[in-house]
Fold this sequence. Notes:
The structure holds 2 protein chains of 2 kinds.
Chain A: H1 9-18, H2 25-42, H3 72-76, E1 82-83, E2 86-87
Antiparallel strand pairs in A: 1-2
Helix pairs in contact in A: 1-2
Chain B: E1 27-33, E2 45-49, H1 76-83, E3 87-92, H2 126-133, E4 139-144, H3 150-156, E5 159-162, E6 182-187, H4 190-200, E7 245-249, H5 258-273, E8 277-281, H6 289-304, H7 323-334, H8 337-350, H9 355-376, E9 382-386, H10 402-407, H11 413-417, E10 422-430, E11 433-440, H12 446-454
Parallel strand pairs in B: 2-3, 2-4, 7-8, 7-9
Antiparallel strand pairs in B: 1-3, 4-6, 5-6, 5-10, 9-11, 10-11
Helix pairs in contact in B: 2-3, 6-8, 6-9
Amino acid sequence: MSDTDAVDPEEVRHVAGLARVDLDEDEVERFAEQFGDILAYFDALDDVPETDREADLANVFRADEVREGLTQAEALQNAPESEDGRFKGPRVG
Amino acid sequence: MAAQDPEEAPGEGRLVPDDFDDDHGAFLTVETVAGADDGPLAGATVAVKDNISTEGVRTTCGSAMLADYVPPYDATVVERLKDAGATVVGKTNMDEFGMGTTTETSAFGPTDNPAAPGRVPGGSSGGSAAAVAAGQADFALGSDTGGSIRCPAAFCGVVGIKPTYGLISRYGLVAYANSLEQIGPIARDVEGAATVLDAIAGPDERDATTRHDTREDLVDDFGGQHPADTTTYADAADGEVDGLSVGVVTDLVEGADEAVVETFEAALDDLRGAGATVHEVSLPSVETAVQAYYVIAMSEASSNLARFDGVRYGHSGGYDGDWNETFAKAREEGFGEEVKRRILLGTYALSAGYHDKYYKQAQDARAWVKQDFDEAFESADVLASPTMPVPPFELGESLSDPLQMYLADANTVPVNLANLPAISVPAGETDRGPVGLQLVGPAFGEETIIRAGSALE
């Protein structure tokens, strides 16, 4: 995309593909128009001065110990389809 | 599901009994879960935003994707409320996955504002604020990613607290933007909100962000303990503000609606009258806070919502074929338009070639906002602004232009970027509805904002 206000419908379809979200044609057209405005608005971030980030971050880990979690039945209870204690996904191919 | 006329609420998909009075459509599911027999909240009722997990009670996030999802466990905050004696009365309507400022993007239709009928209750915790404003619950829980507790509190004329990041466990909250979002209370008065805060704040071994750092070189004012361990927030609601220094953020007052500014100024006079001193401060970084907020929130959303695949939970298209195609169809059907918009924009901002332009610069802006707040707190105990720059919108008024909707969050999002605490308290009314006054404190300065907020009652 160039720095213009327009976003190509093809680009919207490409990003929708990356995000694994199907869109109907109306949505593609509408998003192409809106994304131009929204991304142009985000261009103001170009003016942000460089700032020292002094945050001293450290990962906080709990002890790696076995403990109770969900039962297999609880983990599966919201799955649309399951079989033999497993999630059942779509057939491939 | 199509948007519904608020007058038809409770609408399609809402599980609200006929004999339950819910004229404003605040609830998605009405179900009573009793708490412990005694405790500080014994006898109190609480409504829970529908993105906070409740064991055995469906939790939809306002989305068709999760219309039938029933969590097998309670969020830590729900467990703590029940332990404190509160009775859960139901789950409240919200913008789908917390994405919105009006509670109109819910797949189950909008909620009406009990304090300004025909207008939106604000969002995304609009159902929670409406339930409290209408007297259907004593308290409610909301979640605040960019103002989602404070905005509806302001629009519905009630009190809402967005706590410091790390004060309250996020375990069991269906995440939208992890680095920004906190659970917090909504109540009719400041003391009530503080009482709920007392019940739910504190460390949780299931949420590492609530762990307070105890390394010697980093021990802070709390001696490594979690601040909620040694504090009773309800005690701070004593209205004592004599000598308190209030910084008014001029950047967030300029450009606000005239009636909002008048109401805000009158509330500041009340603080002066109670002995506070008021001076002006400027936070130049807030000019780019909305942009930074949306880039970061959308980026985190695109990653967080990838788990809704219709296989482990959520709406399934039930199609055969290529996994990716099936996944994409289930998500087309399950997600509403605002959710798709943010997932796509977040995917775009993180994609090769644009990561540096959008995401990295947004992180720089976030650091700038934090630095600005730090400097402002050198001369002020709390910072004040209108919570929302406008009175409540009319229902349907703002849906067609997402960019205009995003701009309405200008006063609330800087607080989330800096991970600070803030409270919205009622400041008065315009002829278009209530106005909230926002008070921002330094990290873990909840007592100060509660004290200052209580002086306005």
